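Lay summary. Proteins are chains of building blocks that fold into shapes, and those shapes determine what they do. In this project we predict the shape from the chain. Here is one chain we studied, written as its sequence of building blocks.
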Amino acid sequence: MASFSPLDWFRGSTDKPTCRTALSTHPSLDKSVQDVAESLGRRGDADLALVFASTNYASDLPRLLPLLRQRLTAKHWIGCAGGGVIGTSSSGTPSEVEQKPALSVSLLTLPGLQIKTAALDTERLPDLDGAAQQWQDWVGIDPESCRSQIVLIDPTSNGINDLISGLDYAYPSAPRIGGVAGPHNAPHGSLLLNDKVLNGAVICSIGGDWKLDPVVAQGCRPIGPVFSIEQVQRNVLLELSDGTRKASPVACLQRVLADLTERERDLVRHSLFLGIESRDLQVNPDGTNSVQGAFLVRNLIGVDPNNGAVAVADRVRPGQNVQFQLREADASRQDALELLKEAIDGRTEPSFGLLMACLGRGQGLFGTPNGDVSLARQVMPELPVAGAFCNGEIGPVGGSTHLHGYTACWALLQHDPQ
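And here is the predicted shape, written in a compact code that computers can read:
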């Protein structure tokens, strides 16, 4: 595989990958469009334009893509509105812009790239019990040409989890990263595709010589032992076991709390979650199977003081393993840093990083600006980054794609000829 230098991204050669980025924080949408257009300039057709605009521009969203397309050229345009915007300036400085207007535009020109985009009406989904071909026909993307997917969903959509499960069913070998766009009060959707603003969902299929490597940083650390579910009703845990000991979930949690520091017990009041083990069957090179486990972090949504039961924001079943999790800034930093290092271990630095981060991260979690992008730059110093703060993040854990909260979902664009 031929290697290339990150410096080539900005040279504009037609036979080398280029990634041009721009970010504006002007209160006026017209001025922001002018800023990014002047920064990017006209240098031929890009293969893909990724556009992320803060919901401060919500009333002007229908004007955004037409304005950009008057000044910039790309074969495919996709993006969304977000509660905050992540972008990289033309000088190469990445930023997380929260609670103020911002427009991020990235133009990718990638030789050997195959792209297909689709707009989906999520009011009626195909049957999850039907054939995978029904989902593939509905989406309109050939699985043979789809190596990865970007999935953006309007916050007014119903059946988001069913949609994600259906895409997993139809495209099992293609990891997908994305998020739920930011809500607003304007009479139109939050999704951007070519020259339109849409509801429902939009998909960008990545294929050919390129793929997206997913990195999902859930930002929690485990506390206490791993428990096994003994009794459960739908999403309500009734009894857990630890070895030969069985007890209610509340009693198990009390044991965990007894071993925590005073600071940790204070965090439990607002930052306690439950990790649910998700198992992924892997086929080894020798043809044997192995099972890899990962904990999917979910909210705790209620406690019954009468019987010590705990309700969790997901379906669970007897025999699954669970572990209480604590969310804090240090754990989030360490989690993201280790996962990003692992993702590029021994590999060429990616050409681009798409980041879909929870509104609950950013300065509210880390206490300083640019928390997640700064971590990525420690590992990948030249990485151009773009994305949005979401109302739910989409990414794989344990071999299946899930809708997350409080998570940073990365898609690292890699040149990987087949």
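What the prediction tells us: Residues 1-13, 281-292 have pLDDT under 50 and may be disordered.
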